[in-house]
Design a protein that fits this description.
alpha+beta; elongated; 172 residues; 5-stranded antiparallel β-sheet; 11 strands
Length: 172
Amino acid sequence: MISQVQTYQPEQTPRRAEFAAWVIAILIGGTWLWVGRAYATGLTTFLGWALFAILLFSALAISLGNWVGRSTMLILAPDYVSFRNGLRNVMLHWDEINELEVHPARWEAKRVDVWGENAHFSFYTHGKVRYNGEVRDNTGFAAGNEILQEIIKSAKMTLKNETNKVYYYARE
């Protein structure tokens, strides 16, 4: 059982992709404004603005994802678990957790779904992003496996079923 409050944050991913997406969107938008006004006609104008809109939406989505990742916090306390990420704020007392599922995920990680009566949250254990056999980045919670084991123990859950590397835990 947990004796004191423990706070965890996931690995922070580099913001290279976010920066690149914004630069490309701004370059395409600026180029289209400069070149498109002089040379574009109906269909090409539409396609240029559609491309710019898609790139702008992509940059916004990447920025939102990075903001959510940097805002994410998982708290284990003696009588509850709390998950916050800027968009979602869930607190479950240990006796409110009904079910827990562990699924295989990308990058050698696991996705953990914690289900209560009226709320749920998900988190990823530690994973390694590899490119050509080389570790390029880390993802998920570095202490994810320990967090998972602590939730199982504190919520008094037992393994009920295993199917295709998916583990189902529930209360007695």
